[in-house]
Design a protein that fits this description.
By secondary structure, this protein is an alpha/beta fold. It has 2 domains: 132 residues, Enolase-like, N-terminal domain (Enolase-like, domain 1, 2-Layer Sandwich), CATH 3.30.390.10; 221 residues, Enolase-like C-terminal domain (TIM Barrel), CATH 3.20.20. The protein is built from 12 helices and 14 strands. The strands form 3 sheets. A 7-stranded parallel β-sheet has the order 6-7-8-9-10-11-12. α5 packs across α6. The longest helix has 19 residues. Bound molecules: 2-succinylbenzoate (OSB) and magnesium ion (MG). 2-succinylbenzoate binds next to loops.
Length: 370
């Protein structure tokens, strides 16, 4: 338990090494909110996974900033002496906005763990100190470029390739990658771009021995996902549809998916992510750690989460250099066997490099408890 005395909100921007294109848009820069909470015991960091536009979810940077500044931070100050585990209740009067809430939950948890000298991985019950890494490959301009990128990532050691697809850029592309690499773990992510009327696409993908098909349909279509899962062999994995442990449990019970992508930021933070993990484990559904092109701050949290026992598939926990020429923290590097070390220092185990942080900050607002 501790009293939060101030929160620094910061909008940061870092160019991506190459544009990242999905079925919902293209990103050339990572832009996100970082929160640094100051408590009577120390400080902690949280990264908000919202992006520039409300496209992956309703949440986006400018909206999340206002929700944090005008609702969540005042509620946190009013709560007085609190622990990260209490924040669910403290924030309950704000409906939705799991990404904004996660920012503070994670920052307060980081502060608690730092002051206790305990690593996040140990707190979450990690059973490994290295995790297997996959890579999410954006929609490329041509099949040749896609094949080049995939070959490059495989040469670096990535243990699973995930291809972004959209209507019109799907079966042929995926088949070309499968032909070039008959034995690799391969998956696709549609980011909700299809409908049940596209079942022929998924039947064709079924022939390509995919590890999973991620979020084929609209995020609110749990029933349609259950119908699609009945029609195809490849396991469906849900991402956008899962915003809470309750969603996870509903989706598994309905048969809307057989695998879950756990993004701590999308489900309201690390504590809720642990609950999603527990729900999935109780139903023997594998989970893996998704990513939102995080900076080193969010990446450190993701790596700790990935080290939990139910995370049995490689995550989108790629090396810093897959995203940025220079990260905000010391770069996360992947070994040639496709594994990455889980930070073991107190809390998330990393800090932003002061000069990098200054150079990447686009806006800074300090909010103090009265
Ligand atoms: O759907 O998993 C997704 C990135 C931004 C928004 C949504 C998604 C992604 C990724 C990249 O696939 C995962 C990563 O490497 O961080
Ligand atoms: Mg996804």
């Amino acid at each position: 338990m501790s009293v939060v005395r101030a929160v620094e909100l910061r909008l940061v921007g870092i160019p991506l090494v190459r544009p990242f294109r999905t079925s919902f848009g293209v990103e050339t820069e990572k832009r996100c909110i970082l929160a640094r909470v100051e408590t009577d015991l120390g400080y902690g960091w949280g990264e908000c996974v919202a992006g520039i536009d409300p496209d992956f979810s309703e949440e986006f940077n400018e909206g999340a900033w206002l929700v944090l500044r005008d609702f969540l931070i005042p509620a946190l100050f009013a709560a007085g002496d609190v622990g990260a585990a209490d924040l669910d209740a403290v924030f309950s009067r704000v409906r939705g906005h799991p990404m904004a809430k996660a920012t503070l939950v994670n920052a307060v948890l980081d502060a608690e763990l730092r002051s206790a000298g305990r690593s996040l991985a140990s707190f979450l019950g990690a059973d490994k100190d290295r995790v297997a890494c996959g890579v999410s490959v954006g929609i490329a301009p041509t099949t040749e470029e896609l094949l080049d990128q995939v070959a490059g990532y495989l040469a670096e050691g990535y243990r699973r390739i995930k291809l972004k697809i959209e209507p019109g850029t799907d079966v042929e592309r995926v088949a070309a990658v499968r032909e070039a690499h008959p034995d690799i773990p391969l998956s696709v992510d549609a980011n909700a771009a299809y409908t049940l009327a596209d079942v022929t696409v998924f039947r064709a993908l079924d022939e390509l021995d995919l590890l999973m098909v991620e979020q084929p349909l609209h995020h609110e279509d749990l029933v349609q996902h259950a119908k699609l899962q009945q029609m195809i062999r490849s396991p469906i994995c849900l991402d956008e549809s899962i915003r809470s442990p309750a969603d996870a449990s509903a989706a598994l019970e309905l048969g809307a998916c057989r695998i879950l992508n756990v993004k701590q930021g999308r489900v309201g933070g690390l504590l809720e992510a642990r609950r999603v993990h527990d729900v999935a484990r109780a139903q023997e559904a594998p989970v893996w750690c998704g990513g939102m092109l995080e900076t080193g701050i969010g990446r450190a949290a993701n790596l700790a989460l990935s080290a939990m026992p139910g995370f049995t598939l490689p995550g989108d926990t790629s090396a810093s250099r897959r995203y940025f020429e220079q990260d905000l923290t010391e770069p996360f590097e992947m070994a040639s066997d496709g594994t990455m070390g889980v930070p073991s220092g107190p809390g998330i185990g990393v800090d932003p490099l002061p000069d990098r942080l200054r150079a990447c900050t686009l806006r800074l607002e300090r909010i103090e408890k009265e």
